[in-house]
Design a protein that fits this description.
- This protein has eight helices and two strands.
- It is mainly alpha-helical and 179 residues long.
- It has one domain.
- It has a two-stranded antiparallel ribbon with strand order 1-2.
- The N and C termini lie far apart (73 Å).
Length: 179
């Protein structure tokens, strides 16, 4: 929209710029809150580069099912997972919880980031992710999930008029049919 058109319509560019700036601030604030939430979820401990990269390798096999790009390998030991990695693991964790609830995979596949404290826990988590990557049931469940969500929506909604009480004539007819 041209500046002249905006002025003719009574829209000054300054309030629009202010609104845009306010929206950008709000989005940045929400992003920071979300990052803080994922940082709280982030496993903390002493994690070796080798164990982390073993986890990344398993993670990349599963994240491929979600259409995510490969997560890069770590180049040093860590004491805390990066936010992006936690975010991706949380997404996988939520999908696994849904698959368990749907009965598609067993409870042994559950992912608990809170219990990850060291390399042994990383190896266990990497093993679960490897099993998920190989699970035909999990893969099938992921690929069919959108179809199932559509299928669970009601095919026909009943309007209020259809649910209204029967008319007087209908009541008489119903009573007569029961005699």
């Amino acid at each position: 929209m041209a500046l002249e058109d905006m002025k003719m319509m009574g829209l000054a560019p300054e309030p629009l710029q202010e609104m845009k700036g306010k929206l950008e601030e709000d989005v940045a604030g929400l992003s920071m809150e979300e990052d803080a939430m994922f940082m709280e979820m982030a496993p903390k401990g002493k994690f070796s580069k080798a164990a982390l990269n073993s986890l990344v390798k398993a993670h990349n096999k599963v994240s491929e099912m979600f259409g995510l790009p490969e997560y890069p390998a770590f180049d040093a030991d860590q004491t805390e997972f990066p936010v992006k990695f936690v975010r991706e693991l949380a997404m996988i964790m939520a999908a696994v919880e849904d698959a368990i609830a749907a009965g598609e995979v067993g409870q042994e596949m559950a992912i608990d980031l809170a219990s990850v404290k060291g390399d042994r826990d990383l190896a266990s988590l990497a093993g679960r992710l490897d099993m998920l990557a190989k699970s035909k049931d999990f893969r099938k469940w992921l690929s069919s999930k959108p179809e199932e969500e559509v299928a669970t929506k009601p095919e026909m909604e009943v309007s209020e008029t259809e649910m209204a009480a029967p008319g007087e004539g209908e009541i008489d007819q119903l009573m007569m049919s029961r005699m």
